[in-house]
Design goal:
Layout (H helix, E strand, L loop, with lengths): L1 H31 L3 H10 L1 E5 L5 E5 L6 E4 L5 E6 L8 H14 L1 H7 L1 E2 L1
Antiparallel strand pairs: 1-2, 2-3, 3-4, 4-5
C-alpha cells in the first residue's frame, strides 16, 4: 500500500513539473513574439492590449473564463468574451492564440466566442 501511495505521489509530482515547464515555455514563446511596448504593458497591467483588424481594442488577461474584454475609447469594458482551446493548454499559449486571432481573424473570433 505504501509503495502504491509513493508511486502515485511521484507520478503527481512529475506531472506537476511537466505542467510547470510547459507554462514556462509558453510564457517564453508569448514574450518572444510581443513588441517591446506589448511586453511593457504585459508587465505593468498583467494583461495584453490588442488592436483588432477593425480598430477595436481588447484587453486579454490570464484566465480560462471570460478573460477577453472589449474596451471603449475611455478604457471602459463594454463586452466580455470567453474563448479558449478545447484542451487545457498553458496560459501563454492561450493568450497568444487569442491575440493572433483578434489581429488576423476578428470576425471568426467574434463568431465563436461567448459574449457577456
Amino acid at each position: 500500500m505504501r509503495l502504491e501511495d509513493e508511486q502515485l505521489r511521484q507520478g503527481a509530482a512529475e506531472r506537476a513539473e511537466e505542467r510547470r515547464q510547459a507554462d514556462v515555455r509558453a510564457d517564453d514563446l508569448l514574450l518572444s513574439l510581443l513588441t517591446p511596448a506589448e511586453r511593457e504593458t504585459m508587465e505593468k497591467m498583467a494583461a495584453l492590449v490588442v488592436r483588432s483588424q477593425t480598430g477595436r481594442t481588447f484587453q486579454l488577461r490570464r484566465g480560462r473564463i471570460a478573460n477577453v474584454d472589449e474596451m471603449d475609447a475611455d478604457g471602459n469594458v463594454i463586452a466580455r468574451f470567453c474563448i479558449h482551446p478545447r484542451e487545457s493548454v498553458p496560459y501563454g499559449d492561450s493568450l497568444l492564440a487569442q491575440k493572433l486571432m483578434l489581429e488576423t481573424n476578428e470576425s471568426e473570433f467574434l463568431r465563436i466566442a461567448n459574449r457577456s
